[in-house]
Design goal:
The protein has 429 residues and is an alpha/beta fold. Helices cover 40% and strands 14% of the residues. The strands form three sheets. It has an eight-stranded parallel β-barrel with strand order 1-2-3-6-7-8-9-12, surrounded by five helices. It has a two-stranded antiparallel ribbon with strand order 4-5. A two-stranded antiparallel ribbon has the order 10-11. The relative contact order is 0.11.
Length: 429
């Protein structure tokens, strides 16, 4: 008996002395309504994101894209495995996932590039357009897109959205849903002139702005009716190829329609160039509608360039771009127009010439000149900020990359500052 008591005491002492394992994160309790998220897209599914980055305290979760054809390969037969894989990874860390569905996707990194809409939808009578881009990532590839205003397509998509909601609405692991409207899920028909020709010549009836806007509103209605517990969002974009500012009417119209229904507004128009942020108009829309709903900004390309591939753009230039972008995300920025033309880049003289040309163009278009000769980004009321993988990895102290793409505290500090702003001022929904 004494021997047993002594053994028990020794075991107790060893347990006390051994380092305790880190406590498991509590499962997410539902959407936070704000945060910094990894913009994962199709990549990095199921183990593709380093655990140290997923564990980083400045990341609140991730946004993943899924093609409709992946999730419903046959009508009425749903495959939720891909969604479950990413939900499991992030929920184990107490973080949430944004689920974005696409129905039209070109090549590149998409796993089902030529058929984001299932084949059986077209077999049921939905129209499609087929074209071959001459430029870009899908050059010389055959691209197949649905006709977004086709009634058969819309009816089948509505049924899918209801099934997705029946499975996941109210799931605490999901931050919000984003039901795609056009190419890449965005409010966009196509970025290729060959695609525009296809929608004008093959679609019956052909493309008009009014038809596309009405189709977008129907998808938003489907989404809002289906998701009664979990928020949903619209991926804003400008869908005209015209350069005369025509799209500035239709995009805000859809944005206002969404905001009036409490639907979040998401845009990938964030940029490190003040001029681009002003001309694209999304910051102005966010300023107007931010008090009604939540807004989310992402950017298209890594802000941190690889100096080995971009010798004319050293790391210090990337850091400046990153800092500028973080500031522009929040808004409330104004700079003299000439200086803002290309910060840290060309000479002031070249910037002044560019500003002069823009002023002439604005005058021809009838646009008002910036007050006091300044370019200004109004406050965006931002709730969500998205980082691409390379940029996010540079704020990870456990980043194993060597050289200029390794951990950089300056990136971490900039993200921390923005996240604090998001945390303190999230708008109510």
């Amino acid at each position: 008996m004494r021997k047993l008591k002594g053994t028990a005491a020794l075991l107790t002492l060893l347990v006390f002395l051994l380092p305790s394992a880190a406590p498991a994160a509590e499962p997410p309790k539902g959407p936070k309504g704000w945060g910094v998220f990894l913009h994962a897209q199709f990549t990095a599914r199921a183990g593709g994101v380093p655990a140290s980055l997923m564990d980083h305290s400045l990341l609140d979760g991730a946004r993943y894209s899924f093609n409709w054809s992946e999730l419903e390969p046959r009508e009425g037969q749903y495959d939720w495995q891909l969604i479950e894989l990413v939900l499991k990874e992030w929920a184990a860390r107490g973080k949430t996932v944004i689920v974005a569905v696409k129905t039209a996707q070109k090549g590149g990194h998409s796993p089902t590039a030529k058929g984001a809409t299932p084949d059986w939808v077209f077999a049921a009578g939905a129209q499609k357009v087929v074209f071959t881009p001459k430029t870009g990532e899908s050059k010389s590839e055959t691209v197949l897109f649905p006709v977004f205003w086709d009634p058969v397509y819309l009816a089948k998509y509505d049924k899918f959205i209801k099934a997705l909601a029946a499975r996941y609405d109210g799931d605490p692991r999901i931050e919000y849903f984003e039901m795609g409207i056009g190419q890449g899920g965005a409010l966009k028909i196509t970025s290729d002139k060959e695609g525009w020709a296809a929608y004008k010549n093959q679609a019956k009836p052909p493309f008009t702005a009014e038809r596309f806007v009405e189709a977008a509103k129907k998808v938003l209605d489907f989404s809002r009716a289906a998701f009664k517990k979990t928020p949903d969002a619209v991926f804003l974009n400008t869908f005209y190829r015209q350069k005369d500012g025509t799209e500035k009417k239709e995009m805000p119209e859809v944005a206002r329609y969404a905001a009036d229904r409490g639907i979040y507004l998401f845009s990938r128009s964030l940029d490190h160039k003040l001029q681009a942020m002003v001309e694209r108009g999304f910051a102005q829309v966010f300023h107007e509608l931010g008090p009604k709903t939540k807004t989310a900004f992402a950017y298209d390309f890594n802000l941190i360039k690889d100096p080995g591939k971009k010798k004319d753009h050293p790391l210090e230039g990337s850091i400046r771009d990153f800092r500028a972008t973080m500031g522009y995300a929040i808004g409330g920025v104004a700079e003299p127009e000439a200086a803002a033309a290309a910060p840290g880049g060309p000479s002031e003289q070249r910037g002044a010439k560019r500003a002069e040309r823009r002023a002439d163009r604005n005058q021809r278009k009838g646009d008002a000149a910036p007050e006091g000769g300044k370019l200004a980004i109004p406050t965006t009321y931002l709730s969500y900020l998205f980082l691409l993988h390379r940029d996010a990895s540079m704020m990870d102290p456990k980043n194993r990359s060597k050289g200029p793409l390794s951990y950089d505290k300056r990136i971490e500090d900039e993200v921390r500052k923005v996240r604090e702003r998001l945390r303190k001022t999230p708008p109510a929904r």
